[in-house]
Specification:
CATH topology of one domain: Rossmann fold
Number of helices: 13
Structural class: alpha/beta
Largest sheet: 7 strands, parallel
Distance between the termini: 34 Å
Mean pLDDT: 92
CATH superfamily of one domain: NAD(P)-binding Rossmann-like Domain
Order of helices and strands: EHEEHEHEHEEHHEEEHHEEHEHHHH
Low-confidence stretches: none
Helix content: 40-55%
Shape: globular
Radius of gyration: 20 Å
Strand order of the largest sheet: 3-2-1-4-5-6-11
Number of strands: 13
CATH architecture of one domain: 3-Layer(aba) Sandwich
Amino acid sequence: MVFGSEGFIGSHIVPFLMSRGHVVYRSDLEIRSELGYHQVNLMNQESIEKVLRETKPELLINLAAVTDNKGKDLDYYKVNFKGVSNIIEALRVIDIKPRIFHFSTQYVIGPQKDNSSKASPVNKYGESKLLGEKVLIDTGDIDWVIFRPTNVWGERHQGFSRGVWRYIAKGLYFHPKGRVMRCYVWIHSLCDQILQFIELSNDAVNKQILYLTDPEIDSYQWVNQFSLNLYGKPVRRVTSRLHLSLAILGECLKLLRLSFVMDIERYRNLTQDYIVEYQSSHKLIKYKEVDFQGAVEQTAKWYLKNVC
């Protein structure tokens, strides 16, 4: 069972798992009359009970979440932790114990250069996901694995399509000078990692927090490869001071309830290293190196055909 099957990751992982011989039930908020699809609202425990009674899954992947950065308080992201609690209670009511693979985020951990495992969420979204993790960690009688994906990208990613890729394609993106190392994961690499993890024995992964990512790269390499494919030229670079000035301007415009392309959070994302400790996760599987140029080319072709 995949909760949140119609989102970006879900819409990739469902057909991927099915192509590898798994029987997959899909579930999301939308109402659809399709074979194998079930409408469910994680804020409604009875809704969850109904779906789980009908399907009795051996494995449950929870992708359902509010994932944007628009929320100003935890109530906006309530489904990210209350939804997890409702899943646990529903499982207890109907007395089944599937293995749970729950999607959290790298943002429960700040950009710490020493790769500290100490929780320090970078925003309310990260804080809500940390609360969701705590619900599982405090559950003693259910088998679970927590996935923390890094920056997931690939075809059909609406956030990148409306954001950085759009500016790159128009030649309007400027990257700060300097080397900034970050972790990204191509959606097809993420799917392969998920498949390998769920096919491992329960003893190998039970009650572990695992990172889904490709090895870190300079963020300039990532945006520049997209610029070469979407704009036909290398991305232009400017000093980080200019980005900081624009970020301050953006914060001032926020006070006037006006939107702007840059703010302090975006500035930090552009100028801070963000590397996670993924090596212990990769040791459990046979990580397959990504053809980065080929992956960007494939994604750019989708963007140019379907978005531009």
